[in-house]
Amino acid sequence: MNFWKSVVVAALVAGRLAAQEPSKAEPAAIASLPPTQGSEELPFRFEIGGYGSSVDHGFGSWNGADAKLWFRNRYFTPALIVESQSRPTGTQQNYTFFSYLNWSKSFYTTQGFSYAPQRSDSSTYFPKRRYDMKGYWKLPPGRNLVLGAGYTRFDLGTGGHGQIFNLGALYYHRKLVVEGNVFVNRSQPGNLYSTSGMLSAQYGHEGSYWWGVTAGGGRELYKFVGQTPFDVQFSSYSVNAFYRKWFTRHTGMVISLDYLDKLSGYRRVGGGFHLFFEF
Fold first, then answer.
1. What angle do CA 55, 59, 62 make, to 5 degrees?
2. How far apart are CA 2 and CA 14, in angstroms?
3. What is the dihedral sign for C-alpha 26, 111, 18, 218?
4. What count of other Cβ atoms lies within 10 Å of the Cβ of residue 219?
5. CA 33 to centroid of chain Cα atoms
6. Nearest Cα to 266, choosing from 85, 64, 60?
7. Which helix or strand (DSSP H or E) is residue 9 part of?
8. 251-277 burial, b for 16+ CB within 10 Å, e for fewer?
9. 136 pLDDT exceeds 70?
10. Which CATH number fits domain 3-278: 3.10.20.340, 2.30.30.40, 2.40.160.40, 2.60.120.330?
11. pLDDT at residue 124 above 70?
12. Residues 88-118: pLDDT tens digits?
């Protein structure tokens, strides 16, 4: 069944589609490397800002704001993230705890949990609950090649749930960091599988500037559960770019641009602006 054959079907799927998008595994490393590099950094970083997107096919404007607080430590780096997103169908908040944990010189993990209170199916933009875990192994002798394997479970409430399995690699060379990831997504009900991938590059130095680009693409497949259940399938690709610049030793800004094309659904074009403070 084609998604755009019926306006009624489009309206029903809109809430489920909005919920599925943020449940995909996002690049945890490149665009926001853990702020623990450098020998003279202050322990806390607070970042606050907003973003906006224009979405075609009648989906309107999507706008949001978020705040992040990092505590930087040699062994354990936790972060608290609060975000809110508004669309023509309503507003929803999402609350996240995320952390980096160094177990040894050659092994570290990232782990996170998020919760988004749900008010209605039409204003569900984040998973109700999401759990993330990923392990990274730094290969000898230089430990500049890092292999990673991760697992995500997300729960969309009445819309279903699913898992994401992830394999990836990071490579550090002076000021350049390159990352590649492959994702296998399993969606319930229906036990449907789809795959996606992304490649990222970042260049710069903590305390001065970073710029980076991420490109990704793949398929999204899930079952819409209504009076007449049916499978919904999308192919999509996206490009994201950011520039992080320090104004002073401990303050700066982040500018981001993003483009997403769900080939049989919609196009989204947007950007964001954030300020950060270290103390």
1. 60
2. 14
3. positive
4. 13
5. 13
6. 60
7. helix 7-23
8. ebebebebbbbbeebbbbebebebebe
9. yes
10. 2.40.160.40
11. yes
12. 999 999 999 999 999 999 999 999 999 999 8
